[in-house]
């Protein structure tokens, strides 16, 4: 698959089933994704992988973090994919690379990983939600002081009837300025 095709056809996949990449495959893809921009090569991230019963443990922690009427639904959420890759931002002390830049590097890595997963036939979706700051969830994932849970990549095999049509390409002219004027108004 060419890069342009991968970018235009990758979708957040709601329905994911087995198989998912095994630990060796995930590590290989993550190593490749690590070529994403990362000023200072700080690697301000770590991953917590959850499979099988580990997903149910996270579900119980999410249920504990939720409102009473949503607990049953929250407990089932981690079971929607065979692999959950918890994205943990680990900012490094560095005088040249500010925290925001390290966070941007982490997001770039995650997006590269999603493209690589898609290129290899797997689907993914980056999920967030109320549990990101829950002490019960942090305990379950062993989030350390100073770290920030950014969400989970739900990873697996996409539903066979998913859309593979390229995403519509949006007009971006109104998002570009040149010397204080938009391209459209400067062309007029």
Automatic annotation (TrEMBL):
Which InterPro entries does this UniProt record tie to the protein? NAD(P)H_nitroreductase, Nitroreductase, Nitroreductase-like, YdjA-like
Pfam families the record matches? Nitroreductase
Return the annotated region ranges for Disordered: 1-21
- Tell me which cofactor or cofactors this protein depends on: FMN
Q: Where is the Nitroreductase domain?
A: 8-156
**Which Gene Ontology terms cover its molecular function?**
oxidoreductase activity
Residues binding FMN: 10-12, 39, 126-128
| Keywords per UniProt | Flavoprotein, FMN, NAD, NADP, Oxidoreductase
PANTHER family from the xrefs?
A: NAD(P)H NITROREDUCTASE YDJA-RELATED
Q: What name goes with this protein?
A: Putative NAD(P)H nitroreductase
Origin organism is: Streptomyces himastatinicus ATCC 53653
